[in-house]
Amino acid sequence: MTLFPRLFVLSTLLTFAACAPAGETSLEGDWTLDPDQASLQFVTVKATDILEVHHFGELAGSVSADGAAEVTVTLDKVSTNIDIRDERMREFLFETETYPLAMISTTLAPETFALLPLGETLVTPVELTVDLHGASDVIGTQLAVTRLGPDRVMVATTDPIIVDGYAFGLDGGIEHLRELANLPSITASVPVTFSLVFER
């Protein structure tokens, strides 16, 4: 692109930002996760073809003005709709007395979303760093960012994120759960999805 088109595009963006209503274009500032509008689910597969959906009941998170984003998952709040299974997951899988939290973090480019209009969605590739059970892994995926209002955005997975339990040293816990439930198998890799609403 020559110098003139570059200057033209830049001036057009600056003019748009200056003329648009305050608060409707800029996404600058710090953002906090709304816990009542946050969900994170994972799917387990047992005995080859039995799928069950579970979730965590307590999430916290933030996105800072420089684009650093993080979400904390309280593992004690795992919910599978079966109390004894919740207890076994806490004790034998996640070992929450030693590892009470999981952390998901990434860095977003603030300029990418600066002029996102109300009601519009932008899909962006990211690398998520997942810290779980004393181990860390980087997982590539895509996230959809939707402008819900002047001071509300939703961040959601576009496709399930596959988390490998072996990468986080969960294989021993998975085997223990399999033995306790007298199952032929429990799949170590699980699909994870989430939908998160942040407020400025």
Structural notes for this entry:
With 200 residues, the chain is of the alpha+beta class. The N terminus is likely disordered. It has a single domain, classed as Lipocalin (Beta Barrel), CATH 2.40.128.110. The radius of gyration is 20 Å and the shape is elongated. It contains four helices and eleven strands; from the N terminus they run H-E-E-E-E-E-H-E-H-E-E-E-E-H-E. Helix 2 runs antiparallel to helix 4. The protein has an eight-stranded antiparallel β-barrel.
CATH class: Mainly Beta
Q: What is the rounded Rg? A: 20 Å
The fraction of residues in strands falls at over 45%
Instruction: Note the gap between the termini.
Output: 36 Å
Integer count of domains = 1
Q: Give the helices and strands as they follow along the chain.
A: HEEEEEHEHEEEEHE
Low-confidence stretches: 2-23
Largest sheet, in brief, is: 8 strands, antiparallel, barrel
Q: Percent of residues in helical segments?
A: 10-25%
Q: What is the 3D form?
A: elongated
State the total count of DSSP E strands.
Answer: 11
Average pLDDT number: 88
The assigned structural class equals alpha+beta
Counting DSSP H or I runs of 4 or more residues, the number of helices is 4
- Under CATH, the topology is which? Lipocalin
Please identify, by name, the CATH architecture: Beta Barrel
The CATH H-level homologous superfamily: Lipid/polyisoprenoid-binding, YceI-like
Strand order of the largest sheet: 1-3-4-6-7-8-9-11
